[in-house]
Amino acid sequence: MTALRDNVKGGALTEVTFCILLSLYTPRHGYAIMQFIDEITHGRLMLGAGTLYGALTTLQKKGWIVPCKKTGERKKEYEITALGKEVAEKELLRLRELSHIADRIIGGEHHG
Residue 33: which of 43, 42, 24 has the closest Cα? Predict the structure, then answer.
């Protein structure tokens, strides 16, 4: 699945994976994850159920998320693990560094 080619060489996450991890700082079920991502990206990134559930399975195998231990809930909720938070925090640092580099290059050019 191309949507989950994470930590390849440079350690970068896909946007889908990063958004899923961010969504699970608060426990959520699948549909709530899809709503959260739609909302934070203003509709630019919309996940289908198949993509989402494939991603959730992959992220569980990596140990980045786990199902919550909730009783009485019909829908399975997930939450991010300590390892998942570490991965998300490294991605945030990588994005900040990339943004800083781009600001220096693009912002440093004075046209006119």
Answer: 24
Domain ranges of the chain: 7-107
**pLDDT tens, N- to C-terminus, the chain (112 residues):** 344 555 555 679 999 999 999 999 999 999 999 999 999 999 999 999 999 999 999 999 999 999 997 656 677 999 999 999 999 999 999 999 999 999 999 987 654 4
Q: DSSP letter string over 25-52?
A: TS-EEHHHHHHHHHHHTTTSS---HHHH
Which of these, 93, 26, 99, 45, lies nearest to 17 by C-alpha position?
Answer: 45
CATH for 7-107? 1.10.10.10
